[in-house]
Amino acid sequence: MNAAVRGVGPRLLWQVVAGGWGLLGFEWADGRHADLSAGSADLALVADVLRSAQDVRAPEGAGVLSLADRFADVLPGEQLELLRGDTLLHTDTNPHNLLVDGDRAWLVDWAMPATGPAWVDVAYTTVRLMEADCSAPDALEWAAQFPVWAMADPRAVKAFVAGTCRLWERQIGARGARPSNARFTVLGMAT
After folding, report:
1. Distance from the first to the final alpha carbon of the chain
2. 37: phi > 0 → left, psi -120 to 50 → alpha, else beta; which?
3. Strands 104-107 and 98-101
4. Which among 44, 99, 180, 188 could disulfide-bond with 106, CB atoms 3.0 to 4.6 Å apart, if both were Cys?
5. What's the pLDDT tens digit per position in 87-112?
6. Residue whose C-alpha is closest to residue 88's, from 67, 105, 69
7. Which residues lie across from 6 on neighbouring strands?
8. 10 near 106, Cβ under 8 Å?
């Protein structure tokens, strides 16, 4: 994957496999984790790297699953079709995977790639903005700067939200199992 994301992530310089372990050496990115809070100057840099990532495609034969495959057991077939696309998605754009180095951001740790619509990483990042205390309207306004987000099929976004919530429910339990004061907001929709 790392050769495909050159320019979006630091360049892969070497790799060694020994004793069943793989070790990758990357160019040095003297960065810090991105600040995704409201008003942060990092938000513009994160937007720039996400725009660049929208042009990345999975390498031939890399075996990257589609986002639709990831949601296959929680969404019906017609919703899965809405989540197909050819953009290589990061799918884990948390602040630890967004490094700010001077006047640019890097998208690192491509451990959970998928292929799908280009707007998906914008959606994942929008949720991360809300986790960093951006209000839902402010986070959605940030997302609106991306043409791929503005043109996203609302049915596809709804399917993405439903699939994401169902996968999280599997990991953390059903709504009734959470404390009564727990509330999650995903893309402006309370769950």
Report:
1. 33
2. beta
3. antiparallel
4. 99
5. 999 999 999 999 999 899 999 999 99
6. 67
7. 9
8. yes
